[in-house]
Amino acid sequence: MEKCVPEVSNNNCINVHIPDDTAFSILSKLPIKSLKRFGCVRKSWSLLFDNHYFMNMYRNNFLTKDHSYYDDSTVFIHQTFCPFDGYYDDQTFELYCVSGERFENRVKLDWPNVKLDPIDRSKEKYDSGFNIIGSGSVHGILCLHCASHKNVILWNPSTNQFKVIPHKEDIVDPREFGYDRHRDDYKVICQRDIDIEEIDGDHDVQDEEDISFNPYITVWEIYSLRSNSWRKLDIDMDHVYYMSDERLYIDGLSHGLCAGKIARQKEKESYLLSFDWGNEVFLKTYIPSDIIDGRIDYFSVWIRLVLLNGSIALILNYTDSATFHISILGELGVKESWTKIFTVGPLPCLEFPIGAGKKGDMLFRKTDGELVWFDLNTQMIEDLGVITSRFSCKIVIHKENLLTFEGTNI
């Protein structure tokens, strides 16, 4: 066994040699943010992500560590049904509370019984259920939205308490839902796009080349449950093109995956757009081109944003090779902190990632529509015996909260 032997140098400084096994054991338990910074201490440490032995150790520690995000949590499965000959507002939604290793215990939950304001009067009695904004409840509260109606609802499934948010003209889809810990307030933000052609010609918004990609300017509105009102969000933010419907909420911030055109170039630059609910500001974290190439063919790759054991993770599924690449964000605002830590496959039987559970379990849909658990640690696939339709479901992590908020009892 190698010993740590102090060495006395000529300048009377003592250098201690640390065996690689000991160093790897310590470093593999660090978050990516810290690990990146330690790369300047020793050259070999800057190359750790290329070291197969170290990466196996790091992946195991990453997947097995406990995270408070999952303490006392319940898994919901949210299913979407959309007829191929229908429209977006013809979608219907169902919500199930599931438990057991194979989801053998499934209970369908009733949506809040609330009268909504239909966009189309012919669908006034159309019972579609609700879409859920985000990948989990926020302190036990879910934010619901129905495409065929105007309203947004805050709902606590544990107490069956809900609040219908007052409708505001020109506000169509809620973008994010979160909690302001400084003011003890639940908030919703919406994006309203204004066509540049409708703006007075004296406004020099952008050149014609950029308008062809982005013909809108964006106004952001924010709702406060505490004041029960909407107001304009005073933020200078360009039009936001969301690449997917996934929204993550953790530690007072919401996150979505977006893309923007690089000035005077054909490719798009991808970034994580985060919203700080306490300070009401946006933050962009750009994604390196070696993770998402700006010239990528979005028809040949599935892209999913998930929370993987408490960390923001980006999953790219390349359909031609049936491989999955999973990258973790180490630090908000730092482009270089994105790190690819998993490459899975080829697994041609897996079609699309649905979401992440606990301890490295990933929920996938197979090509035949069946849901399966995939263990990132063991690389084992476990069939769940649950069949779902195409483009149809996601995992929602819910934590029970029996405290009341200002709302209406069902």
Automatic annotation (TrEMBL):
Bilayer-crossing residues are none
Query: Which Pfam families is this protein grouped with?
Result: FBA_1
Which lineage? Eukaryota, Viridiplantae, Streptophyta, Embryophyta, Tracheophyta
Q: Which SUPFAM superfamilies match?
A: F-box domain
Report what the protein is called. F-box associated beta-propeller type 1 domain-containing protein
* Protein species of origin: Trifolium subterraneum
> Which residues does the UniProt record annotate as the domain F-box associated beta-propeller type?
138-379
